[in-house]
Amino acid sequence: MRDGGAWGRPPLHSLPGCRRCQIPKTTRLVLYRMADHTSQNSWPRVGVVIVNWNLKDTLRETLASCLQIDYPDFKVVVVDNGSTDGAPEMVRKEFPQVHLIANATGMGYAHATSQGMEWLVQQGARYLFSTSNDVIFDRAILREMTSYLESHPDVGLVGSKVFFHDRPQIIWHAGGHIGWHGHSMHFGWERRDHPRYDNPRECVFVTGCGYMVRAELAQKLGYLKSDLVFYSEDSDFCQRIKKAGFRVMYLPTAKLWHKTSTTLAKNRGLQLRYSTRNNLYVLQTHRVGLPYPLTLGIHLVAVLPIKMLFFLLLGQPANAVGIWRGICDWRHGRYGMINE
C-alpha cells in the first residue's frame, strides 16, 4: 500500500553474524536471495485479515495503525460479523482502500478469518497475516515476518511478540505451550520484556491475534476449523500445520500491542463453554501435552472439576454451568455456533 524505497543489496559477507568462509552453501543461497529480492523491491504480497464485531472505535485505531505498516505490497480485508454499531459503514467511509466483507450475521471468528484468508489468496497473497481488531502494530512487523518465512522454508507459521497495550513493556504472549494440566499457556505472560524473550522459539501454538502463515499451506489445510467458532482455533491450526511437516515459530522481532478486549466478555459462562469444549477437542484430536491420554485425563477429572467448584464457591454458578456444558458438548461431538 505504500511505495517502498529501494534497498541496496549488501555484500554477502557483510550480513550480520556472517563470515565469508564459514557460511554453509545452502545458507549463503538463502541469504543471497533475500538480499536480492529486497534490493529489487519485490517483496511478496501479504494479505492482512481482521475480524470485527461491534468494536467500531477500536477497529478504527487498528486500521489506522495497520495502514502505517512499512511494507510495499499488502492488502487488508475486514470481515465484519454482523456489527450493529456502524462499523461496516465506518470502514467504507474512512478506509476505502480496505476491502470489506460484511456478513449479515455473526459467523464466528474462525469462519470469518477463513473468509478473509480465502479472499486474500484470490488477490495473489503469498503470506497471510491474521490479527485482531484491537491491536496496534510495530511498523516493521510484516517485513520481519516475511523475511523470516522467506529464509526458513521449513517454517509454516510465525507468531509475534505481543505486549499489553496499556502496559507497553509487559508481555502478553511470547509463544504458547500446553501444560501437563491441559491449559494453553503463554510464555512471558505478565512479565516485563527481557532479553530471554528475544530469541525465536519453536512453539506448540501461537496466539491468533498476530501470526503469519504461508498462503498455499493455509489453503491446502482448508484454513481455520469453522466448527470451533471461538477459542483454540489457533491451537488447532498450529497443530495441523505441524502435522503437515512444518514448524511453528515465535518471532520476537515482530511486535504488536494488544488491548485484550474480548468479544464474549459480557457472557463469561458462554465464553467458558466455548473454551472448555474447544480445548478438550484440541487435547483429544492432537494429543498434546503429556503422553496421551494423561493430559486429557488430568484436565477432565481434576482441573475442570476444581474450576467448577471454584466458581460455585465464588457465587458464580453460571460460570460453573458453562464449563459443564462445554464438557457435554465435547463428549457428544456438538460443535459450531452455540445459540443462547
Give the helices and strands, then pairings.
Elements: H1 25-39, E1 46-52, H2 56-66, E2 74-81, H3 87-94, E3 99-103, H4 109-122, E4 127-131, E5 135-137, H5 141-151, E6 155-164, E7 171-173, E8 176-178, E9 184-186, E10 201-202, E11 210-214, H6 215-221, H7 233-243, E12 247-258, H8 268-286, H9 294-313, H10 317-331
Helix pairs in contact: 2-3, 8-9, 8-10, 9-10
Characterize this entry briefly.
With 340 residues, the protein is an alpha/beta fold.
Name of the level-1 CATH class of the largest domain? Alpha Beta
Unreliable segments of 5+ consecutive residues: 1-40
Q: H/E order of the elements?
A: HEHEHEHEEHEEEEEEHHEHHH
Average residue-wise pLDDT = 89
- What is the CATH superfamily label of the largest domain? Spore Coat Polysaccharide Biosynthesis Protein SpsA, Chain A
Cα-atom radius of gyration: 21 Å
- Helical segment count: 10
First-last Cα distance = 42 Å
Named at the architecture level, the CATH assignment of the largest domain is Alpha-Beta Complex
What is the CATH topology descriptor of the largest domain? Spore Coat Polysaccharide Biosynthesis Protein SpsA, Chain A
Could you tell me the number of beta strands? 12
The largest β sheet comes out as: 10 strands, mixed
Portion in strands: 15-25%
